[in-house]
Amino acid sequence: MSTLTITPTETESETRTETESVVRPRVEYDGHDPSSLISMRNIWKTYQMGTEAVHALHGVSFDIPRGEYIAIIGPSGSGKSTLMNLIGCLDTPSQGQYWLNGKNVSEMDDDELARIRNQEVGFVFQTFNLLARATALHNVELPLIYGGVSSSQRHEMAKQALKSVDLTERMTHKPNELSGGQRQRVAIARALVNHPSILLADEPTGALDSHTSMEIMDLFERLHSEGNTIIVVTHEHDIAARAHRVVSIRTPAWRSWTSSNVSTQKATRSSSSPTSMTSPPAPTA
After folding, report:
1. What counts of helices (H) and strands (E) characterise the chain?
2. Which one of 4, 57, 207, 274 is CB 3.0 to 4.6 Å from 45, fit for a cystine?
3. 64-73: per-residue pLDDT in tens?
4. Who contacts 49 (Cβ-Cβ below 8 Å, separation ≥6)?
5. With contact defined as beta carbons under 8 Å apart, do 245 and 69 qualify?
6. Is it the case that residue 6 has pLDDT exceeding 60?
7. How many CB atoms lie within 10 A of CB 233?
8. How many domains does the chain have?
9. Residue 192 within a domain
10. Nearest Cα to 224, choosing from 210, 253, 245?
11. pLDDT score recorded for residue 95
12. pLDDT at residue 282, as a whole number
């Protein structure tokens, strides 16, 4: 497994092995990689807790190419849910720039962000979030209804999405008539129906048994092989290991910004390749 480690420190480490390649510290984060589907530069998320400013994210910068399968992992309080919310345009950064599919979403208003969420991001949640009284087909149609797609067109698109997750024979069933794994497949079909730029899954196996979890991860692997960009947020190492790259967020939000440590790991079979990068200055409160 080769690794790429981004460790914000005050100085670059001079210790390295023969297999390491060193990238000099970067302190400029203005430009983004136009070839990347996701490009984040100097992202901070700060919450005001009374008189104290809590930095949930500390100057995070990274790129996700189109078609990548990536997992974000970290303990409770590390900032992984905050990062997921920013990637999914459910929240906006306190500082920094975020480009999604060539659009600078960090400068968009609420209406523009809503359009981005509908068109660019497919969400998969731990608790499925299906309408109890609606069939699988109608649940999958929901994003298309919000997007103003005609009834006949969304009906056909929802059928195709359910077919892609092997649920053609269950499309008229309601959630209480489906197993946990089948409910999550409906949720994945709903996430895919708009052909989004990214499939963003938040603890997608958290409510499933181990056998069903592996089935869902097998499905993600197949969807990735078909060209989908997949981001899985999890605290389970065996689930993260199924991705092709792992971003590990190690520092809890309550620590000072100078202790931040964000690493990315390539889940491939080649040799190690750590890198060191300096941290940008902390934003003023």
Report:
1. 7, 13
2. 57
3. 999 999 999 9
4. none
5. yes
6. no
7. 27
8. 1
9. yes
10. 245
11. 94
12. 52
Place of tokens 């003023």: 284
126 closest CA partner among 231, 250, 233, 199: 233
Using DSSP, state whether 96 is helix, strand or coil: strand
Sequence-separated contacts (24+) of 260-263 with Cβ below 8 Å = 260/8, 260/55, 260/58, 260/59, 261/7, 261/8, 262/6, 262/7, 262/8, 262/58, 262/60, 262/62, 263/3, 263/4, 263/5, 263/6, 263/7
pLDDT digits (tens, 9 = 90+) for 75-132: 888 889 999 999 999 999 999 999 999 999 999 999 999 999 999 999 999 999 999 9
- Mean pLDDT score of the chain: 81
* pLDDT recorded at residue 30: 53
The pLDDT of residue 17 is 33
Residue 285 domain-assigned (yes or no): no
Which residue has 């995070």 as its token pair? 60
Handedness of CA 141, 161, 69, 36 (dihedral sign): negative
Q: Residues 188-229: pLDDT tens digits? A: 999 999 999 999 999 999 999 999 999 999 999 999 999 999
Residue 283 forms part of a structural domain: no
Question: What are the CA-CA distances from residue 165 to residues 132, 182, 193, 211, 263 (Å)?
Answer: 20, 9, 11, 17, 32
Task: Specify if 268 maps to a domain.
Answer: yes
Closest CA to 140 of 167, 121, 159: 159
Q: What CATH number is associated with residue 79?
A: 3.40.50.300
